[in-house]
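Chapter summary example.
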Amino acid sequence: MAGSIAESPIVFHDPTSEPCRSVHWLCVEARLPVRLRATWLARGDHRQPDFLKVNPRHQVPAMRHGELCLSESQAIMSYLCELYGVKDQWFGATLEERARVAMLLSWHHHAVRKHVMLLHNLPLYYVPFYHGEAKTARPSAEAVQALREGFRESLQQLEAFLHGREYLIGGRLSVADVVIAPDLTAMDIDPEAPALLAPYPGVCGWLARLRGLHSFQRAHEGLELALPAMRQHLLSRTNEP
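The structure predicted for these 241 residues follows.
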C-alpha cells in the first residue's frame, strides 16, 4: 500500500546516475517534497540488504512510499507527479501534448539513451573510472569514431524535434526535457564535448537554457563535484602511449 501524501516518499539516489538526476531535477523544479537518500553505486550501497528490500535488481533510482516500492525513473516521476497533482503540467495537459511526451520518452530509449549514454559515454568515460583499467580496455580510435557515428543520428533527430521550439513540447519544460538532457550533459567529462555538439545549434541552445535553471544546477551539484577527478582520469587515459 502506498503511503499518504503527508508522508514524503524516499528516493534512493546517486548523483552520478543520469536517471537519478532526472528524478531529482523534476522534484526540485516541481517542488515535490521527497527525502533523498544517498545510494552510491561506487561504494556498493545498491548491494546492501536494506536497499535490496526496495529494489532487488540493484538499480537506482528507487523509491519507497509507505509499503510501495518502485524502480525505473519514469515510473517514479509519473507516480510523484500524480501523487502531488502536477501530472498534467509535466506529462502533458492535452491529448496532443501527452502523445508527444510519450513519443519522446519512447524514442529516447533507443536513441539518446542507447547511442549517446549506454554505447558511448559508459564505455568511454564512466566504466573505466569506476571499475579501473584492468577490467576495461581502452577502445581504439576507430572504435571511438564508430561509436560517435552512432550517436550523431540521434543528435540529428533531437535537433529536428527541437526545431522551432524552446523546449521539447514547445514553450515550457516537460518530463521529456528532464529525462533526455542528463544523458547529454553527462558528456561534460570530455573536453571534446562542445565540439561534438557544435553541429547541432538547436540542441546546444536547448541545453544552455536548461543549464541556466536553478533546478538543473541543484540536481547536478553532486556530479559537478565528481567531474574534476573524472576528467583527470579521462585525460590520463588519452595521454597514455
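To summarize the output: The chain has two domains: 10-89, 93-218+225-236.
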